[in-house]
Design brief:
Number of domains: 1
Protein name: M14 family metallocarboxypeptidase
Distance between the termini: 41 Å
Structural class: alpha/beta
CATH superfamily: Zn peptidases
CATH architecture: 3-Layer(aba) Sandwich
Largest sheet: 8 strands, mixed
Helix content: 25-40%
Radius of gyration: 19 Å
Strand content: 15-25%
């Protein structure tokens, strides 16, 4: 729906009802293929990894979407676990393809060291439509809580639930795009019946840590690794990135559990959310994927080096 004006749906100042949400969904169109671009990329990985369907989203008339998880064949219940998630927001392309590139090129590096679990495309309907929300106009990355109405979030939480308490690290791969400001934030304001307040999109990579357990050394190790691949977003004139204070170069913090963010689902000692900026004139699509891979590797390597020791963060 890029280029359309979401404020035209409904009445300004009044939250959307079911009719407005149906109108919004009717405007969405399939712009790329989950089967062709994601499932096809996962298929060759079956030779080296375990691939399982952890859920299925039936979104008639658009189709049925299998949700796939990838894990190491050498799973050992005596080892801690690492979770890598991508595509919670389907339009954030490098989150999906960065996760797949990480598994393909580096997943085997952690055999016998940590149990690796990767969910590369949490929101396939939104992936196809280059959209932030699911078909019910729900943002999955504000919906990771008990009784969630978002099927994407519910399925991932069910996958993770048996392993809670065993995760050492979780990195959730995202992007911040120009369309956040031009399309998705105006849509959010319209949906919720609130005025749209313009913001500023940062040029570069940054991280969102957990304000309840920020682990600054962990976050900084990731920033340093990614800086070898692409540039780090500077603070704006107010010392902020997307309205939040910069607590260290390229790092802001959110209360991830309270906000229902994916990064809060595991209880891992080390957790963070990446934000790649794919619209930068200084970054190619491959650099964006490489930045996600560098972040995932740095996160897991740091966690393995420091264990659950609070002194490591």
């Amino acid at each position: 729906m890029s280029g359309q004006t979401q404020e035209q749906i409904g009445t300004p100042g009044r939250p959307w009802g079911e009719a407005e949400k149906a109108q919004w969904r009717a405007r969405q169109s399939r712009r790329r293929g989950y089967a062709d671009e994601v499932l096809a990329a996962i298929e060759p990985l079956r030779a080296r990894f375990e691939v399982s369907e952890y859920g299925r989203l039936d979104y008639a008339p658009d189709g049925s979407y299998p949700l796939l998880a990838i894990r190491g064949r050498d799973w050992d219940d005596a080892l801690p676990c690492a979770l890598v998630t991508g595509g919670v927001h389907g339009y954030e392309t490098s989150g999906v393809h960065g996760a797949l590139q990480f598994v393909d090129r580096h997943g085997g590096d952690y055999a016998g060291r940590i149990n690796l679990l990767v969910a590369p495309c949490v929101s396939p309907w939104a992936y196809e439509r280059i959209q932030r929300w699911n078909p019910q106009a729900i943002d999955p990355n504000r919906s990771f809580f008990a009784g969630t109405p978002a099927g994407e979030s519910a399925a991932l939480m069910e996958l993770v639930a048996p392993l809670r308490g065993r995760f050492l690290v979780h990195i959730d791969l995202h992007e911040t795009t120009d369309s956040d400001e031009s399309e998705f934030r105006p849509a959010l304001a319209a949906r919720d019946g609130e005025p749209f307040e313009p913001g500023e999109i940062p040029d570069g990579f940054y991280l969102v840590g957990d304000s309840a357990d920020p682990r600054p050394a962990f976050q900084q190790a990731i920033i340093e690794a990614v800086a070898q691949v692409t540039h780090i977003a500077p603070a704006d004139a107010s010392g902020e990135i997307i309205g939040s204070p910069v607590v260290a170069p390229g790092v802001i913090d959110y209360d991830v559990v309270r906000l229902g963010l994916c990064a809060g689902i595991t209880g891992a000692a080390y957790r963070t959310t990446t934000e790649v900026y794919p619209d930068s004139a200084r970054a190619t699509p491959q650099q964006c994927n490489d930045a996600q891979v560098a972040a995932a590797r740095a996160a897991i390597d740091f966690a393995l080096a420091h264990g659950g020791d609070a002194g490591g963060g």
